[in-house]
Amino acid sequence: MTESANLSSALQRIRADVRAMHAYVVQPATGLLKMDAMENPFSLPPALQTALGARLGALALNRYPGERLEDLKQALMDYAGAPAGSAILLGNGSDEIISLLALACAQGDQRAKLLAPMPGFVMYPMSAQLQGLDFVNVSLDADFQLDEAAMLAALAEHRPAITYLAYPNNPTATLWDEAVVQRVIDAVGAQGGMVVMDEAYQPFASRSWITRMHAEPERNAHVLLMRTLSKFGLAGVRLGYLIGRKALVQEIDKVRPPYNVSVLNCEAALFALEHTEVFAAQAAELCAARTELLAALRRLPGVEKVWDSEANMVLIRVRDAAAAHAGMKARGVLVKNVSAMHPLLDQCLRLTVGSTADNALMLAALEASI
């Protein structure tokens, strides 16, 4: 058999649906102002860089991760204010946790279901497909709010094992009405599923579902709170975590690969949690910059719509998103054209909220491109 024939035969061993998929693409950003991925623009102060470097340099990299992970779990539980009776699971970013949740709920031939409002995070449907779950897509309304009637109808019809509620949502930056969210959570509980509240953008939001989990613990007993340190300011550390009732979290933890969080990730996260005031100040600065950015965008000719934001991103609609995206890139600024993600996102760009200086450069590039 020839080499090309061998390769062709080997490729056929890969699932057909995987071969038909498109990989998650990270846009090349060399030489560009990167405003496409909602990263924190601030680095650690020099004194903290030195202190962190010393701690990381002293780690036993020849050993597998050990008891320090338990210290990190407790630190995250304390930071989040986890309710009594909670447990925590750590992941290599929240992306891994999303995969673990789907894996834990996959039922083989029974085809468990995963439901999420859309447009939303692309990893929800991708994890469902890869783990053999059916994905149920419930469209948001034209203002990117939850369509309560559609959600309740879909829950009654499909009885999903997992329902994702991103709080705030990506890419719309929407923080949905608390009463509507609670009624959706109630409906999920009535049919025996679990809700994952994805709070990736919690540092920039005006409220968290952890408050409701404390106020009405039994009503929210089937809720799992998922967060990441990426938007906290540690995107390069790749650390996500899931908090919920111990009985639920322990079952999901069974499918987690051993040593999935490295000693470097663990120690960097612990260090950051010892200096939460630094990151809280950065988040406050970005929230102030977001207010200024929203006002400036609403004054900009050619920007047809600007949505309110409870995250470190802003969604806008322009006349020609592809042309605006290309024009901004040619001017050295990279943003995200989300037009193809969902019909409701037609001609929409997603802009990261950066520092005041970065936002000014982004605004200038946008104005010149539309």
Question: Can you give a write-up of this model?
Answer:
- By secondary structure, this protein is an alpha/beta fold.
- The chain has 2 domains: 14-43 and 277-369, Aspartate Aminotransferase, domain 1 (Alpha-Beta Complex); 61-274, Type I PLP-dependent aspartate aminotransferase-like (Major domain) (Aspartate Aminotransferase, domain 2, 3-Layer(aba) Sandwich), CATH 3.40.640.10.
- 44% of the residues lie in helices and 16% in strands.
- The protein contains 15 helices and 13 strands.
- It has helices spanning 3-11, 16-19, 46-57, 68-80, 93-105, 123-131, 148-158, 178-190, 210-215, 230-234, 246-253, 263-273, 276-299, 321-330, 356-369; strands at 33-34, 86-91, 113-118, 134-139, 162-166, 194-198, 223-228, 240-245, 303-306, 313-318, 333-334, 336-337, 348-352.
- The strands form 3 sheets. A 7-stranded mixed beta sheet has the order 2-8-7-6-5-3-4, sandwiched between helices.
- Strand 6 (194-198), helix 9 and strand 7 form a beta-alpha-beta unit.
- The protein starts with a helix and ends with a helix.
Fold blueprint:
Blueprint: H1 3-11, H2 16-19, E1 33-34, H3 46-57, H4 68-80, E2 86-91, H5 93-105, E3 113-118, H6 123-131, E4 134-139, H7 148-158, E5 162-166, H8 178-190, E6 194-198, H9 210-215, E7 223-228, H10 230-234, E8 240-245, H11 246-253, H12 263-273, H13 276-299, E9 303-306, E10 313-318, H14 321-330, E11 333-334, E12 336-337, E13 348-352, H15 356-369
Parallel strand pairs: 1-11, 3-4, 3-5, 5-6, 6-7
Antiparallel strand pairs: 2-8, 7-8, 9-10, 10-13, 12-13
Helix pairs in contact: 4-12, 5-6, 7-8, 13-15, 14-15
